[in-house]
Each structure stands twice: as structure tokens, then as C-alpha cells.
Amino acid sequence: MPLFRLRVLIAMLGTLTVVLAGCGTGDDGSRQGRRPAGAHVTIQVPTDAPTISAAVSLAQPGDLVLVAPGVYHESVKVATAQITLRGESRDKVVIDGQLQQPNGIVVTAPGVAVENLTVENNTQNGILLTGSATAVAGSPGRTGGYDTGNEPVTFLKSFLVSYVTATRNGLYGIYAFSAQDGVIEHSYASGGADSGIYVGQCKPCHIVVRDNIAELNAVGYEGTNASGDMYVVGNRFVGNRVGLTTDSDHQEKLLPQQGAVVAGNLIAGNQQTSTPEQADGGWGVGVGIDGGSDNQFIRNRIAGNINAGLLITATVDIPPDGNQILDNTFAANGVDVGWTFPTATQGRGNCLSGNDLQTTVPAQLAMIASCPVSAQSPVLSGTWAMPTAPGGIPFTEVAAPAAQPQFPNATTTGATVVPALPALPEIASIPLPSALLLAESALVQTS
């Protein structure tokens, strides 16, 4: 008989033993179970616990919470370190907020893995990973993220989100805020009324966002005040209103945004009308750099964005300085690369090298701002006719996602060990996405 079921049986008989299952509460309020050294269990929902939340409350570090197919109307809070929450089937294990709760899953403990399930219909976030108590309890600010006031910055350390589908959530699908040392991978995000995947308020981040799909969001991926070892690689941001942004925002701490690497992504056709309309009104943009500095954009394929493939501008009083656009391929954008500074805040030291592009604003930008360029060089800025953004649709009406790839051997693989620090990608080995990928999605077509 499995250890966990034996423990539950003994508890039901009222004869708890010290060796198997004597449970108490530690000084920090966490549940302490006296088990044989190194013993871990699989807690099955609903066999061993009727709800996901009940199973998580029973779990101890190293345990696996394995969830059977079903629709679960609950908000799951994971406050125990180093546990794995995994669905048996990615598209059939559904945590549905019914538009009655802010978050589907909230992770506040280190070393937690969330895998192979769907989170949907939450008024704020599908998954929130954070070290901020204010974010857990609070309401979003006017631009979407969390204003934590005078709360000191406290990071959630180490996390993994893998093979998760996050759809039709009122702010973000997958949201890492005030978190470090984590990976978001092999996941799908759609119907995010602000963005599908968001990383905010971390420095240094030590975060890797890789091999994800974000479509039908206001913004596919957003990195706000996300600096230092921040990698966005090998993703597909197609058919949103804006594909990707990296920016600085006074609403969050750790200004300014600096030092992200965006490499090997497909960023195309980001002018879908059947999407939620973000408050900032972005439309038809592949990549937006808004007050972000010292970022590298390397070997991305940026195509079919009706306004601009890549746009650099300032945010309020924060200039975008020293960004490098290297070896990217642009095609069929309104403007391939455009730099525009309509206010007194202007960016310097931004440069281009090795790109395949046709149109820039200002003209001849690839020549006059070739890397390296001095930070003291003249500011380059221009304007172009930007298309008017059409109205959006409620996030609740975004098309349901197709079935997505499953976590391999979900029911037979043990708990996932999340490393304290993720392995960072070797940028030199990340290829330019194939042009054939453009033909695979009807969303690339302008609407």
C-alpha cells in the first residue's frame, strides 16, 4: 500500500504513529509530517483528497500532487516549498475561476513546479508566482501590474511552469512578479486582457521564458522592470495585438528595465481584432521597447506586423539606451524598425547590425546607427503613419485553444526537482526561426 494511503488509513483509525504519519505544525505554520527520511508520496486528486487545494495542504517538500481529469472550481494556493502540482491531462484538468476569483493558482513558496493543466476564467491571473504579499492580496494598478507601495521587494526564489495552458484571464495568463530563478516553458497563453506571459519587478531575474506560444492576447509577452539574466528565447508570439514588449514602469519597483536577451522568436501578424484591447492601445507591433535599455534582440523573425516590426520609444522620463538589434530578419511590416521620441525623453546608443530589413524610420537607420554606436551620438527619431487600432473583444470571448502537447509520461514520472538556479541558454546556439513557421498559422494573415 502506498505510504500516503497508509498514512490516511491510520489517521482515520485514530492510531497515528510517530514513524508513519504523526503530523503537527511547525513554527512557521507549515504542516510537519514525521516520515522515514527521504520518503516522498504522490497525492492523487480526487482519490486521496477531494480538491486540489486539499491535496496541496497535505503535501510536503518533494511530494507530487497528481490531478485527475475534471473541472475544478477553486483557487489553489501553494505555500509549501518544493512540491509538484501536475495534471494527468493538460487539456482535461481545468482550474476554472468562473470569473469569481482573481487567480487560478498562486505560488508563494520556492522550488514549486506547476505542470500539465489548464487555468482559465480568472478575473486577474491564471498563474501568479510571487514573493510579494501585497500582490497576493491586492488589486492591480491602473496599467495592469501591481503597485506594492512601501512593501520591501521580496523575491520568490526558483519556480517552474511547464506544459500549462492559460486562457481567458482578466490580466495575465502566466505572471511571474517579484520572482527570480525560474523557467516558463512549453506553455500556451491566450485571451490575456493585458498579456499572455508577464515577468515583472526582478533584478537580477535569472528567468528563462522558452518554447511557449502566446496568441490572441493584448500583448503576447511583457517584461516590465525585468532585468539581468532575463531570457526570452524560441517562443512564438503570433496573432496578438502586440507581440512582445520590454519596458520600464514607475508603478513597479526596480526601475529601469535593463539587460534582457530576446532571441530566436517568431513574432508575426500581431494585429488580431478578435483580442482584448489593452489600456495602452497598442496595435500592429511586433516588438516594443518602451524605456528599456541594454537589451539584445538576436535572430528573431519579425514579419507581417502592420504598424512596426520593432519600435523603440521612451516611457515618461525613462529613455531607452544602448539596445542592440542584431541579425534579425524582418519582412512585410508597416515599418521594419522605427525609433520615435515625441517628448523630451530620448534614447541614445541604440544600434543595428546584420539585420535583413527594408524600411526604417528614420531612413538609412541601419547605416547611421550601425553597431557599435556612441552613447554621445545624436538622437535619431522619426514618425510614420500608424494605423488606428480597432476595438477589441472581452477576454471571455476569445476563441478556445486547441489541444496542446502533453507533459511526457505525466502519470508515471515522479515529482520534478526544480533547480535553485535555471540553466541559462547558450545564445550562440539559438537559430533564426524557419520561414516555414509563418505558413503554419492562419493568424499571420492581417485582418
Number of strands: 33
Query: Helical segment tally?
Result: 5
Please give the oligomerization state of what you see.
single chain
Radius of gyration: 23 Å
- Return the CATH topology: Pectate Lyase C-like
Pfam family, one: NosD
Organism: Amycolatopsis taiwanensis
Protein name: Periplasmic copper-binding protein NosD beta helix domain-containing protein
Keywords: Signal
Explain how this protein is built.
The protein is mostly beta strands and 447 residues long. The protein has one domain: 3 Solenoid (Pectate Lyase C-like), CATH 2.160.20. Helices cover 7% and strands 35% of the residues. The chain has 5 helices and 33 strands. The chain has helices at 3-13, 52-58, 133-137, 365-368, 436-439, and strands spanning 23-25, 31-33, 42-45, 64-67, 70-72, 76-78, 84-87, 93-96, 103-107, 112-120, 125-130, 156-169, 172-177, 179-185, 188-192, 195-202, 207-210, 213-214, 219-226, 230-233, 236-238, 242-247, 260-263, 266-268, 285-290, 296-298, 301-303, 308-313, 324-326, 329-331, 335-339, 351-353, 360-361. The chain has a 20-stranded parallel beta sheet that branches. It has an 11-stranded parallel beta sheet with strand order 6-9-11-13-16-19-22-25-28-31-33. Mean pLDDT is 90; it is low at 1-33 and 442-447.
